[in-house]
Amino acid sequence: MSALPGEVLKQSFYDLNYADLEAVIKQNDLNQSVAGILFNWHYKKKESMQCRDNISKSSLAFFEKHFDFSLPEIDTVQESSKDRTVKFLFKLKDQHKVETVLIPFNNKYSICLSSQVGCAMNCSFCFTGEQGLKRNLTTSEMVGQFLQAWRWLASNRPGEERILNIVFMGQGEPLHNFDAVKKACEIFLSQRGTSIGVQKITISTAGYIPGLKRWLQEVPGVNLALSLHSPFTEKRNELIPINKKYPLAEVLNYIDAIPLQKKQFITYEYILIKGLNDTADDAKKLGALLQGKRAYINLIPFNAFPGSRYESPDLIEVENFKAILDTFRIPTLIRGTKGDDVLAACGQLNSKN
Ligand code: SAH
């Protein structure tokens, strides 16, 4: 990002977790109470710097001088006419664009955040993968997607500004941008701010082992979802090319080592693609692989996108697949396709245009 002449590039306030903010305050001899006040404004009340009652003029001036409080700009908003799904296209400072989706459930929302511009994983069924990786998102750009979506709800659907779940299932591979995603989680979790419960955050991965190695120590308690898509090596290699470097068996070893809370599961996502991974054999092998694990399977019928090479199976095939998994006693949900009329369903996010 290049600064305009005369412009000093400031650090974004929304890149700071609570400990970072306290450190800034200490280094600059400001009043310690400022950290709590700022987190309360920005993350609990979600107001901007306009609200300046209980903070000294000098502290305020310091933050205004040294920090950037801008958020990613909303470029377009598409509201589904079938359900209440909302898809946002955000414009970032360097003109790159990313998408975010609000998914409704009983007047509350889950938010699906993007973690990268594009993605390096190159999965053969994914629209985002076609873009390649442009760059990682910063923590503030992820936190900013949340805050802007919240503010949009507050002004467009007043009373509905309740975003209770956060899923990193938008564009990008979150574990490939571990540091920034981790810090965004720390901000969401902070009791001084949005105070999202740890079990309300889910990070989805294609099986990126360098990130899984850090999971236990660095994001304890956060939910994990693995995009599994095939228990067979050759098919998984075709669908998720990083399987050649990070094979499923090894990925599962890391995942099995994660201690789970009561009622906590690992989610295994399985896209069903007609004629490719939707047969009885696939279901049996998948069932055998996950039997006995604290597993929850999300079956996602493939969502088509412009130019996609695969097809979605018929509903009866999806139901047959689930019936086989039921015999293994693995809880399985057939995921609906909320928001597909605005290309907001899984794998339909692509913001290159
Ligand atoms: N990189 C992460 C998160 C992004 S994808 C991951 O791979 O998990 C989020 C979910 O959408 C994944 O389960 C992914 O496999 C699924 N998905 C991607 N493209 C899809 C498509 N065309 N149809 C249905 N689901 C898709």
UniProtKB/TrEMBL annotation:
Annotated protein name in UniProt: 23S rRNA (Adenine(2503)-C(2))-methyltransferase RlmN
Family: Belongs to the radical SAM superfamily. RlmN family.
Keywords per UniProt: 4Fe-4S, Cytoplasm, Disulfide bond, Iron, Iron-sulfur, Metal-binding, Methyltransferase, rRNA processing, S-adenosyl-L-methionine, Transferase
Cofactor(s), names only, from the UniProt record: [4Fe-4S] cluster
Family matches, as Pfam families: Radical_SAM
Chain's gene name: rlmN
Compartments where located: Cytoplasm
EC number: 2.1.1.192
UniProt main location, coarse: cytoplasm
An MF annotation (GO) of this entry: methyltransferase activity
